[in-house]
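Appendix B. Raw example, untouched.
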Amino acid sequence: MLAAIAEKNAYETALENFEIAADALGMEFSVREMIKYPERTLTVNIPVRMENGTVRRFEGYRVQHSTVRGPGKGGIRYHPNVTLDEVKALATWMTWKCAVVNIPFGGAKGGVTCNPKQMTQLELERLTRRYASAILPLIGPEQDIPAPDVYTNSQTMAWIMDTYSMTRG
């Protein structure tokens, strides 16, 4: 039993929670099919020149679970254990949180698999700007609003905003 619990990932848990809630609400199958899965999932490869001259590749994600109620809203996390399934689960839960408190946002989430504790400030800036450029088609005030999360902060958001504004104005 414990092995089965340990193997379950966050997204599988989110889907199970959804089914429990949908059953309790008597939600029709067609409605479940419309809102159960993410609208968009973007996986990006982020090559970054490190200060020692080498180039390392990082993987990043941006998931928009639902933008039915308004622009997606959700943080960006930098962590060695970030996975697409984790980001999908967090975007799903953000949709529910926004709906429960009746704010006009949908759920989104982003992340990059990296260890920011082992990166310099310059490497983090390069990573952030490359990631922002890669997810640029999905973000903006009318469609998806990134925010800080695990191991990201106001400086990270400033680099994202600067990269966004250099391209989009």
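End of appendix B.
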